[in-house]
Amino acid sequence: MKAIVTIIFFITNLASFAQAEKVVGNYTLQLENKETHLLKYNLTLNPDGTFFFHYYSNIKSGIPPESNKYGKGNWTIANNVVSFFADKEKDFDDKHALDFTNTKARLIIKSPRNKTDKIIKTKLQFLASDIFWMKSIDLFKV
């Protein structure tokens, strides 16, 4: 009985680890109109379950015209949904002020069962966030 429970435990952990390996990496999105604005989103998901986020905006008519925003914290994945959270005491400082707690993103990848030549870029599609401008953003894996 112990052997069966141990085997089931290892299979479950192996499946979770394999799913986490698919999501680890750098994700980016750049939106620009050379005459009026430039927006850059960069997200790094580390294998140890931590993340770093950088948002850069340069809007010619904005006040201020140029700004940088940073965030960091931890992430987990379950059923292709990445959940972000931040520890108020260790993840926030003068530079890292974005709170990603309650942020969720769906991992979209090409299924191994899909044998077509259709190219599907790996991306994180943000579904919910307390950061209002993060909702409905798609960051593509580099």
Task: Give the topology, please.
Layout: H1 2-23, E1 25-33, E2 37-45, E3 50-59, E4 66-78, E5 81-85, E6 96-98, E7 103-108, E8 123-128, E9 138-141
Parallel strand pairs: 4-6
Antiparallel strand pairs: 1-2, 1-9, 2-3, 3-4, 4-5, 5-7, 7-8, 8-9
How far apart the termini lie comes to 45 Å
Cα-atom radius of gyration: 18 Å
Share of β-strand residues? over 45%
| Uncertain segments | 5-17
User: The CATH topology, please?
Assistant: Lipocalin
Query: Any idea what the shape is?
Result: flat
Largest sheet: 8 strands, antiparallel, barrel
- Classified in CATH, the superfamily is NlpE, N-terminal domain
In the CATH hierarchy, the architecture is Beta Barrel
Strands in their spatial order, largest beta sheet: 1-2-3-4-5-7-8-9
Whole-number average pLDDT?
87
Provide the helix percentage.
Answer: 10-25%
Helix-strand pattern:
HEEEEEEEEE
Number of strands: 9
* Count of helix runs: 1
The CATH class is identified as Mainly Beta
Q: Could you say which structural class the secondary elements and strand pairing correspond to?
A: alpha+beta
Number of domains: 1
Give a verbal description of the structure.
Helix content is 15%, strand content 46%. By secondary structure, the chain is α+β, with helices and mostly antiparallel strands. It has a single domain (2-141), classed as NlpE, N-terminal domain (Lipocalin, Beta Barrel), CATH 2.40.128. Strands 1-2-3-4-5-7-8-9 form an eight-stranded antiparallel β-barrel. Strand 4 (66-78) and strand 5 (81-85) form a beta hairpin. The radius of gyration is 18 Å and the shape is flat. The protein starts with a helix and ends with a strand.
